[in-house]
Amino acid sequence: MKDQAINQYQQNSVLSASPGELTLMLYNGCLKFIKQAEKALESNDHQTKNETIIKAQSIMTELMLTLNREVEISQKILPLYEYIHHKLFEANTKNDKEALKEAFTNVKELKDTWIQVLKMQKEGHLT
After folding, report:
1. Measuring CA to CA, which residue among 111, 109, 126, 108 is closest to residue 35?
2. Beta-carbon neighbour count of residue 58 at 10 Å?
3. I need a surface site. Which of 8, 34, 87, 110 has the fewest CB within 10 A?
4. Backbone angles phi, psi at 50, to 5 degrees
């Protein structure tokens, strides 16, 4: 019953979120999966490592696919998303902790920047 209530709450959160909030949720999910992959890699749980990195890669793919290519900044963000996706691939295929850490750092910086953008937008500094 409790799990069902949590799932319903999460579903409602996604359905009622703005596009900006959805992007933030994607960044948070990606960071969560990278952290889980890091723990799995440390404990030699290769199945969990693989599954969680694939989830993080799927989020990066979603972010790439939903970029508005007509906005100039998208042309600068896309290569970064591709780079993170590649680092996740490296981490998965080579069990490379450093590649995983680099992916995490880059996603964290994107998330922190996005939080500032949302804050500026809320304050009316951006349209």
Report:
1. 108
2. 16
3. 8
4. -60, -50
